# Entry
Amino acid sequence: MNASVHWLSAFVDTGLSPRALRELLTARVATVDAVERVRIDLAGIVVARVVEAARHPDSDHLWVTRVDAGGPELLDVVCGAPNVTAGARYPFAPVGTTMPNGLAIERRKIRGRLSNGMLCSARELGLGTDHEGIMPLSVDAPPGTPLLDAMPIGDTRLVVDVLPNRPDLLSHLGLARELAAATGRPLRDPSIPGAPAPSAVVPSVTWAAGSAPAAGVRVTVEDPGDCPAFLGAVVRGVRIGPSPEWLVGRLATVGVRSVNNVVDVTNYMLHGYGQPMHAYDLRRLAGGEVRVRRARAGESIRTLDGSDRRLDPSMIVIADAERAQGIAGVIGGRESEISADTTDLFLEAASFAPGRVRAARRALGISTDASYRFERLVPAVSPAETCQVALRLLVALAGGEVAPPVALVGRRPERPAPITLRSRRVAQVLGVPIPAGESATLLRTIGFEATPAQDTIAVVFPWWRTDARTEIDLVEEVARLRGYDSVPDELRPYRLGTVPDDPLVARSAALRELLVGRGFLEIRPMPFVGPGAGATVRVTNPLADTESYLRPDLLVSLARRAEFNLARLEGNLRLFEIGTAFRAVTGSERPHEETRVAALCMGARRPPHFTEPEPPSWDEWDAKALAHDVAGVARPGVRVELAPDGGNGTLWRVLAGEGEADGAGAREEIGRVVRVSLDAPPWAAPAFGVEITVAATPSAPVAPPGEQAFAAPIAPPARGAGPRYRAQPSQPPVRVDVTLLVPDDVSAGAIERRLRASGDTVLERVELVSEYRGVSIPAGHRSLTWRLTFRHGERSLREKEVEARRDKLLRALESELGVRHRTT
Amino acid sequence: MTDTVNRPSLAELLDRMAGLEREALPAIAAAADPEELERLRIRYLGRTAGLLSGVSGSLGLLPAGDRPAAGAAFARATAAIRARLDERAAAVAATRRAAAPPLDLTMPGRAVWQGGRHPVTVVIDEVAAIFRELGFTIALGPEAESEWYNFTALNFPPDHPALDLHDTLYLESGALLRTHTSPVQVRTLQAYPPPVRVLVPGNAYRRDFFDASHAPMFVQIEGLAIDEGVSFVDLKATLTHFARRFFGAARTRFRPSFFPFTEPSAEMDVECRICGGAGCRTCKLTGWTEILGCGMVHPAVLRSAGVDAERYTGWAFGMGPARVAQQRYDIPDIRELYDSDVRVLAALAR
Ligand SMILES: [Zn+2]
# Structure
């Protein structure tokens, strides 16, 4: 909402500067986003003081002056004004300024003397007609001050952010009403110069259901649900012409171009009183009829902006006996537009269903000041309340006479029932006691009827307040009118809440700590993907095809982000995300959501160093170990195993729980380790990805409406779970390397499982330390070396003893897996 | 018979050990490099083929009465040789170091990659830390929501423009992508009785084109405090305290606002940190920076969640950590927070 400070002061004389108005409105009413000087074309003009003035040696009417314009040095300026006086202040246009008429000020020579700028007359600045001399300023502002800051020139525009619950503030009257309340100044009716007395113009208006005559025109509303009130008035004998300067100026300040006196009156009513109006040329309305009806299928109209628009039956139109002459609440028609030779007109003031106006505005792709207000609801009482001002102004500016009767079609809205405001409730919500008398006084300042009784107040909302009408709305009004700053901000004691932390919070933090420590950078990409790649959750109204599904996994997002970086020639990537993956569930409104952690790595494992100019790249084994560690943090206390998977890009499936690799036992697949296929340049290293499901989300209880739920999908850790202290032996370990000749059909994992399953209590560690294929190894075989670490808890191990244990293991391997010891 | 022949006497063994020691010590003293020392270690002390180890094998063959004396002599001889070896190894190493060219200590250390949390996560963590001090816990909720949780329960009228296909992303199944984290207010209140003090960070979605200042997905932090006697005073006090802690000694102001799910509603601003309240371009000459929306939870919301709205009151707020991160790190374009340029992320992680 754009408001003119001049216009507001016509309603209430606050005596406040635009800046102070901004502060007051923002603190009490609605936020003022900007305060804008309307005469921005004067932005370059500054206040200057003439220090010396002497006759030009080569001219009898020019002066050569020395001017202080705020700069470090005095300027030489040649001036032709007879009234230039040393010591006086004048508006000054420095070199480089553009004058309101478009003239650019340059340094130039006048009769041989250099002139650095121009001292200005009122006419040159558009501030008056006086061009007999330059404009003396009676201000104390120091030289160099912008003229707009030094003087109250022109109007000021306030850009007010009016929120949807307060459509009554979408007018100067609405804002002025609040300003009057906040300052204690009276609200007044702006005088209309030359307007006749109200009774001389407007016949009394009475409500009629369905249909009513307006002079010779029959006004009919087909569906009162579409149009709760429609006021029509015929004015005969008008003269179309320009509007007076005060009206043109006010409209200009709020951003409306003057059209003619009649159209300007309708715009004045919209911005001044919040009631959009429309004037039709009566000659163009066929059949002496105005009908508010739905558009017919296939009907079209040429609107005021010159476009031909196709209508449909969801839209309300204002029609004559033959065709649509306007789209209700949105825009009028070209055919019945007021033109220079209009003499008789039909004035419309109405209230339309907000949803219909919004739908029509969107379908047609036009937004107007009128549709903006109708969408936010113009009350049904408003046309009758505002028509008098409009008709008086019309007659004052365009002449003519209102032809009786004036039609008002609709049902008079009932007086709203009073709402009870309890002082106890005010104190409960605001935290400060406010006596009923004080609340009542505050409410009355903005037009509420408030009748206090003991500790309650019976409150009736004024007709212009269309926001919800409940007790809590009144509590808000009391707080707002009293000022939010009047409420103290002392911290008071509180009780601890009953809600435990969501288990995902700690787990996510631990995962972040792990991955950040490993050199990974967290990303927060958007979860949208295009169709395909396993996506099952479709967005019905996406803004782009590439955003038409929710991702089935996180690695797809990480892959796209990796490609983004590769395109910027950055190939050393370590990215991770903790985010949501989505899967459609048949028969369920909500998809299944899982919180997952995913990491992608490619390129150098370490930054280059002079000892290692080409560090090795991340490989499968890095990814495998990372997956193990990530899974361990994501699922603390649960046994995790990586099962080889030769599948499509997948290297390992991550399994959690007790059980065997062959699938025996209850194990859950919680993730995977993959080679990530990327749209990558040839120089890029291979990329590896790890993705682990942390938990289904939400992990907080979800209850159907009205029911309570306490079940938590993440089980609390079992008693005794997690690591425990173990005393470490101080006896020396004995390490033995065993090299095995392994046929290709025997996996290292099988051998290692067998070694660990030996039940040898002194075998402390089993580490694979080399893999070798080559000349001395028979085809179809490889040589694998394990380092076995033996340690006894209480005593030193003897060599023989260790050998015996080793040999036992070797025999078992040979007999069970066909793996022979390879001696060098 | 062979048994008696090969059985050594105590004197013989002591002699052999003394001889080995006499032979070893000068050899060790003469060794000039670590390889030579290692060879000598294996020669005398090697576990399998060492000369002294060979002697130890014979200890068991002595009469029981002689064994302690022999064992002690063995231990002494081994210790003496080992000590001399260590001593010589240190001396050799020192000589080597002295002879080697000096290290250029201005050369760089061997670095590892630096990881980092996302800037938005950093802000969330800091906000959460302050609210945790005030007794708040953290609750989470689903990103795909029903219309009931996202709108109806939060007191949005059925014809509210936000429900429109133009502003909200809907899923084929009928659910929608939550437009704010506020549905978690209702979910939490359904599941837990007051007092409730929770903070809810999470993703929210709007049907916005992706540009320098809008994104179809954004992160929101929601706060909720419900109990008997919780009032607008507590709202102002807690949020002002938060602003002081988070932004330093900043002044705050509360101005009227509107949300369907709170009443009274307010916006909290903090004094602009760039101009200190004097007004500058960043704060649009107001001297204030908008930080969060807040208000007293609307009774209709409490009733939706099954909470007695006459007995309990409370307040809620919602803020955008991405905006705070943008201001803190001078990020001109919000898309930087989604693009995941590792150079940008690594620079911010420091
Ligand atoms: Zn500022």
